[in-house]
């Protein structure tokens, strides 16, 4: 079940995030660290009512934030659609729950949310060295628009018209 996150979810969301960071490092993906994302960022998402979680039998196994905020680096890309657009941030799935289609369910939820809220498209970025994530997004019909450079390196930017 996917639902909006509440403050009571912050501890479990932070714990799963730390598991994801450790697993990513083990896989050679140095995308996230103690600086970003962290519990403060997740708390801000929840306070703004932009955080969504996937629960399986009462356990939080996935998280994402949805809003219209994008980094200024996005402005240098040639997007295929106009405003308004929805941006997916911080999508992660607990390592023990990966490869069960949960990230696909989260993406479908974001797409339905975008339709209901009358967005023109969904945009987001993915660390270029995170091959698994990039493959999932391409498989889901997202188009690579270009790349941007952030603190951790090169990120691929994707878009899908809704």
In summary, what is this structure?
By secondary structure, this protein is an alpha+beta fold.
Gyration radius, in Å: 15 Å
The residue-averaged pLDDT reads 95
Structural class label? alpha+beta
Q: Can you tell me the overall shape? A: globular
CATH superfamily: Gcn5-related N-acetyltransferase (GNAT)
Q: Which fold does the CATH topology refer to? A: Aminopeptidase
Terminal residue distance: 23 Å
With strands numbered from the N-terminus, the spatial order across the biggest sheet is 1-2-3-4-5-7-6
**Order of secondary-structure elements:** EHHEEEHEHEE
The total domain count is: 1
Please outline the major beta sheet.
7 strands, mixed
Number of strands: 7
CATH architecture: 3-Layer(aba) Sandwich
The first-level CATH class is given as Alpha Beta
Helical segment count: 4
Percentage of helical residues? 25-40%
Uncertain ranges: none
Strand content: 25-35%
Description:
The protein has helices spanning 10-26, 39-47, 102-116, 131-139; strands spanning 2-4, 51-56, 59-67, 85-93, 121-127, 143-150, 153-161. By secondary structure, it is of the alpha+beta class. The protein has one domain: 3-Layer(aba) Sandwich (Aminopeptidase). The protein has a 7-stranded mixed β-sheet with strand order 1-2-3-4-5-7-6, with helices on both faces. Strand 6 (143-150) and strand 7 form a beta hairpin. The radius of gyration is 15 Å and the shape is globular. It starts with a strand and ends with a strand. The mean pLDDT is 95.
């Amino acid at each position: 079940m996917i639902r909006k996150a509440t403050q009571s979810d912050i501890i479990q969301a932070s714990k799963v995030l730390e598991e994801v960071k450790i697993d990513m490092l083990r896989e050679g993906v140095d995308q996230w660290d103690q600086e970003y994302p962290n519990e403060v960022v997740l708390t801000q998402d929840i306070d703004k009512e932009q955080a969504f979680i996937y629960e399986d039998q009462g356990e939080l196994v996935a998280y994402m934030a949805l809003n219209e905020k994008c980094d200024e680096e996005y402005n240098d890309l040639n997007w295929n659609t106009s405003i308004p657009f929805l941006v997916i941030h911080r999508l992660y799935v607990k390592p023990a729950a990966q490869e069960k289609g949960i990230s696909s369910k989260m993406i479908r939820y974001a797409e339905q949310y975008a339709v209901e809220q009358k967005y023109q498209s969904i945009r987001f970025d993915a660390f270029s060295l995170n091959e698994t994530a990039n493959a999932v997004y391409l498989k889901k019909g997202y188009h690579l628009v270009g790349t941007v450079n952030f603190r951790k390196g090169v990120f691929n930017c994707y878009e899908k018209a809704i």
